[in-house]
């Protein structure tokens, strides 16, 4: 599939699976409204020097956002898997499985970003913070960022942390798909997401309630859209 086919399919895909989209949009709206309201309460309570209330509201807001984020992230991994298999239906909703999915995604991201961070620290310590060191660290970070992108796809495909953490294989997958194609797809997705985010941001300046609802709705839509595009991209490996 070329980039145009991937993006056009990913744009339509969420609407082909309206039941799952609505359920997760409701979760997104709850997170957007309750989480946002709790965090706003923190600011108000803190301004009133009510530290206990601020801490309680902050805990509730963070908890809501974490739970919602885990559910959406974990479901997104299943969407990647369906995209790899080029299936047009939606994954089933399995809360336990999808929370575990999200935890695995976090572990993969942590490993792939902590390694270049450690390498960067070692290089800075041994070589100093010169231009050459900066360039080397930048290249290593970019390589691992692309590898992490492929690692998430490998996690979805094989349902195995071992396969996802096979760094050499993940880097090899980048060359199979094509670095330019991966980059172009990410840029296309980013541009669409940025346009939606700007529109929602403008609306939120006038009405926080409507903005919060739209943030939940379009946040979930973008999660479906992005993960579908990622899965279709990796289906060519």
TrEMBL record:
<feature type="transmembrane region" description="Helical">
    <location>
        <begin position="182"/>
        <end position="203"/>
    </location>
</feature>
<keyword id="KW-0472">Membrane</keyword>
<protein>
    <submittedName>
        <fullName>Uncharacterized protein</fullName>
    </submittedName>
</protein>
<dbReference type="Pfam" id="PF13197">
    <property type="entry name" value="DUF4013"/>
</dbReference>
<keyword id="KW-1133">Transmembrane helix</keyword>
<keyword id="KW-0812">Transmembrane</keyword>
<feature type="transmembrane region" description="Helical">
    <location>
        <begin position="52"/>
        <end position="77"/>
    </location>
</feature>
<dbReference type="InterPro" id="IPR025098">
    <property type="entry name" value="DUF4013"/>
</dbReference>
<feature type="transmembrane region" description="Helical">
    <location>
        <begin position="21"/>
        <end position="46"/>
    </location>
</feature>
<feature type="transmembrane region" description="Helical">
    <location>
        <begin position="130"/>
        <end position="152"/>
    </location>
</feature>
<feature type="transmembrane region" description="Helical">
    <location>
        <begin position="105"/>
        <end position="124"/>
    </location>
</feature>
<feature type="transmembrane region" description="Helical">
    <location>
        <begin position="209"/>
        <end position="226"/>
    </location>
</feature>
């Amino acid at each position: 599939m070329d980039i145009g086919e991937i993006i056009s399919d990913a744009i339509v895909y969420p609407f082909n699976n309206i039941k799952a989209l609505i359920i997760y949009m409701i979760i997104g709206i709850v997170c957007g409204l309750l989480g946002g309201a709790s965090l706003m309460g923190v600011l108000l309570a803190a301004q009133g020097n009510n530290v206990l209330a601020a801490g309680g509201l902050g805990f509730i807001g963070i908890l809501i956002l974490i739970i919602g984020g885990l559910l959406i992230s974990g479901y997104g991994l299943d969407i990647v898997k369906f995209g790899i298999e080029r299936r047009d239906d939606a994954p089933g909703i399995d809360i336990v499985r999808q929370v575990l999915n999200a935890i695995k995604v976090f572990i993969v991201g942590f490993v792939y970003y902590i390694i270049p961070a450690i390498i960067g620290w070692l290089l800075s310590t041994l070589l100093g913070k010169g231009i050459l060191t900066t360039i080397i660290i930048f290249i290593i970070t970019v390589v691992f960022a692309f590898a992490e992108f492929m690692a998430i796809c490998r996690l979805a495909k094989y349902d195995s942390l071992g396969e996802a953490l096979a760094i050499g294989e993940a880097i090899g997958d980048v060359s199979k798909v094509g670095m330019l194609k991966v980059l172009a797809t990410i840029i296309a997705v980013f541009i669409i997401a940025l346009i939606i985010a700007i529109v929602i941001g403008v609306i939120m300046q006038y009405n926080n309630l409507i903005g919060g609802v739209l943030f939940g709705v379009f946040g979930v839509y973008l999660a479906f859209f992005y993960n579908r595009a990622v899965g279709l991209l990796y289906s060519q490996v």
